[in-house]
């Protein structure tokens, strides 16, 4: 017998990984727009752009992992880490298809850092969601 959903949405739409990825992409998009506005309308130099990119990605991964872990309610490190890995795969696919980049060691390091940051966010999300 089919169980009714409480919020009226399809269960796949409430997937912790999908919700976490949505948050990551939203934060990256918002951060990119803010960075572009800062570069255009302030005296911020383009040489500081890598720091903005690293900061935006770290905040996005932490936020996405946190939401993913909170949504799951358990195993936040796993859901957060998987969300980070999905984000890295998306970035690598876009980089490969759009910019024809070669595979190097840097994506492996990026994968480890991204999944670690998102896993930490997932751990915090599970702990925040239990209260």
TrEMBL record:
Cell membrane keyword on record: no
Alphabetically ordered keywords of this record: Membrane, Transmembrane, Transmembrane helix
Domain of life: Bacteria
Pfam families (alphabetical): DUF3792
Regions that span the bilayer: 12-39, 51-69, 76-99, 105-126
Name of the protein in its database record: Putative membrane protein, TIGR04086 family
Organism for this UniProt entry: Marininema mesophilum
Source lineage: Bacteria, Bacillati, Bacillota, Bacilli, Bacillales
């Amino acid at each position: 017998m089919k169980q009714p959903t409480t919020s009226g949405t399809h269960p796949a739409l409430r997937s912790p990984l999908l919700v976490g990825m949505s948050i990551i992409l939203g934060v990256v998009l918002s951060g990119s727009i803010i960075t572009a506005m800062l570069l255009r309308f302030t005296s911020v130099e383009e040489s500081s752009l890598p720091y903005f990119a690293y900061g935006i990605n770290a905040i996005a991964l932490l936020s996405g992992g946190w939401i993913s872990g909170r949504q799951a309610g358990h195993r936040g490190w796993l859901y957060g880490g998987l969300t980070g890995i999905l984000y890295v795969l998306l970035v690598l696919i876009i980089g490969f298809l759009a910019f024809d980049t070669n595979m190097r060691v840097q994506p492996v390091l990026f994968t480890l850092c991204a999944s670690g940051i998102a896993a930490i966010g997932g751990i915090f999300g599970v702990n925040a969601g239990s209260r």
